[in-house]
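Let us practice reading a record.
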Amino acid sequence: MKPERYEPVPFDIDATHARWLKQPGYAKAYAALTDEFAMLGELLRARQQAGLTQAEVAVRMGIPQSSVARLESSAGSRKHAPSLATLRRYADALGCDLHLSLAPKPVRARKRA
């Protein structure tokens, strides 16, 4: 009997996302997570730019690597949002400053609120 060969299934994230956008409720739910996706992207970009692994950031923060993984993944979940103090420690571990900003919503969004 010949062993089965693993054949990975191709996955086109852009095509999948476009298909899912046609499903009721998906576009609204995805749009509601814009801030979380932006924060996650910023955390990962800053760590990559610093050239550090999660383990190295964990050592600098004095926490387990699993806590750094949870911090980075919770940025997109809304369940366990990191505190400002934790974000400052993360930024310090990367050699970065933490900057927050508030911007006015577009006129359309303000009228709905």
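A brief commentary: The longest helix spans residues 34-50.
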